[in-house]
Amino acid sequence: MEAATVQAPGGAVGNGDPEKKGLSTKAKFFIGLGIYLAAAILLLLIFGNNGKNEAFKPQNEFKLEPWVSLHLAGIDLSLNKAVLYLFLASALTIATMTWIAKRMVEKPNRVQTAVEVSYDLTKNTITGGSLQGELARKWFPFIAALFFWIWFSNMLGFLPLPTNTEHTFAIGGLEIPSFAIYAATANIAIPLVLTLVVWLSYHVEGIRSQGIGPYFKSWLPPGLEDMHPVGKAAIFVIEVISHFVRLISLSVRLFANILAGHLLLLFMGGGLAVLLGIAALGALTFPLAFAFFIFEVGLVATLQAFIFATLSAIYIGGATSASH
Amino acid sequence: MELLGYIGLLPLAAESGGEESGGSFLVSPGLGLMIWTLVLFLITMWVLSKVAFPKIQEALDKRAKTIAESIDAAERQRKESDELLAEYRARLAEAREQADDIMARARKSAETAEAEAAAAGKEKREELVSAAKRDIEAETRRSLDQIRQEVADLTVLATERVTRKSLNAEDQKRLVEEALGEVDFSTLSGSEKS
User: Fold this and answer.
1) A259 touching B (Cβ < 8 Å)
2) Domain-wise residue ranges, chain A
3) Mean per-residue pLDDT pooled into runs of 10, chain B (194 residues)
């Protein structure tokens, strides 16, 4: 990115040095990097270090302040930022999918093509990869809904919305919450409950298709028929643990990826400079924020939705097939 | 649910110590939020499975069917056009053959007609030439006879003038034959001599 700044023809030609004309991409990159670092150091020398900022708590970006307090039977159902994002994600998923579904035409436009491709992905790659026949038909809506819902939720997380009620700004005397990015999937509760649904679903489906005894027997890997019962029991215990670990691995994978992405954007976008009190650092990290933003939107958001849905399909497929 | 909450807390439980602004809230799942998630996800799934997915599937199936039909139709049409092309080619070859045949025949008949015309012309010409020859010969013979008569008469007349007497028939005949014997007629009918 920075290499582009030294690509200006004036510098190379004006110098008249034949060696400068044939600058390799590598050389350009390092010159760009040097200028970039020099600028940052210059800025550091000019503005100096204000000392560590103790008041700034970056994690509070993810803190949920109850906007409307709501308690039912001792359960805190207060409306907050996460609930808003859940509503938005659900509404966006339903609206987009039904809108496209209702106006499906023979010759699709780009949006319809994108929806068709993702529908095909959920149907043939994610569901079809692990489940066949009746099972695939039965579980496809659940797995596809997981994919689309998580995807919309993740993508929504990169759209700045006026949701930061901790910091407000005024337009014509109206207090407006600051624009901030937040993702519902960056809150552990949301991936966890989805994981619980998947977890219970695959056990129920496994027991339903194999029967309770054979299902738990199928947890033992094949090839242990001659093993001592104690050894078998030990392995069974490990398998039981592995099933419980899935609760954590599936939920934390999604949660941690999205949270880490948002934290990265927060730090690179200026949070780190504020936290450390080094303004010059902002110049160094800000371009990285763009790179991470593209990385998160272009890859992580879709990839995590894909992984969550794929693993769900694999778990259900594994539970319903006799050989583990 | 208590257990699950505890599981969620595990990764950062050691360092957080439950301080609100420390960040432990990041990994403590709220039951209310979980219920919201469950409700909203189930609603989304229900709507998608009832409204969106069947329609998308239907449209995709329809398109797949259309594509399959189009491919079949294209295949059929290609076959038909291949057949048509083969037929046209065969017909074209046949037509060319016929044309060649017609040309050959026409050429042949033209040659025959030419030869016939040439033969007829020759015959006619020969006929005309021989007729002309005959006419000339007849005319020549007539002229010779006439000359002979004239010569005879003149001979008789001259003899009478010379001898002052008239000649009888016998004398006349003798005289004429003598005179004629002296005249060379061959010079008059040169064509015959040659």
Assistant:
1) yes
2) 1-47, 52-320
3) 44 40 69 89 93 89 91 95 95 95 95 94 94 94 90 82 76 78 67 46
